[in-house]
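Objective 1b. Sequence-to-structure analysis of Selenoprotein S.
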Amino acid sequence: MGEAIPADEFEERFVEPEDPVHPPTLEQGSPWVLSQIVYYVIAFVTQNGWFCVGLAIAGYYLWSKFQPKVQELKARQERDKEAAEYHKDPDKFIAKERAIAAARQRMQEEYNRKSEKHLEELKLREEQKRQQQVEENAQAAGGAPRRLNETNDYASSNTVNKKNDKAKPRLRPEYNPLMSDYSSSSGWRPSRSTGGG
């Protein structure tokens, strides 16, 4: 390793200049004016907090109240400026109207193309559905044996279900919930009132 340097030689070799190049602290302080402004603002807010909240609410209310009117005023000024410009040079107005009409025409043509394409797709789907139904009917007619009086499997299953419904009545035929039934053993019968007289 290296030789040890005595302290005296070290001090002689590395002597700091009297006028240092760097400041003693490397922190950059904020400007005095800025720090004073921040201090006064914070002090005002801490002392008058509710006043600041009320002021903010009032400002928001006024902004929401007057913003549409300001925007309307700006739009009106812009329209007036545009109208004055077109009044000076009517060719600009005519060119703008032609450009708008051409854009509308392009949009209408595109809409017409899309609607025609959509109608063709709908017709194609309907044709495919019809073709599929014809194929299903052909398979049903030629594939499975059927009874002579049945048109298809759905109708035969439907008639069987109707027969089963008729076979099982839900309630007794003599039962009517609106009428009292004294023959049942689980009914309440009022007591006989006797006249006291």
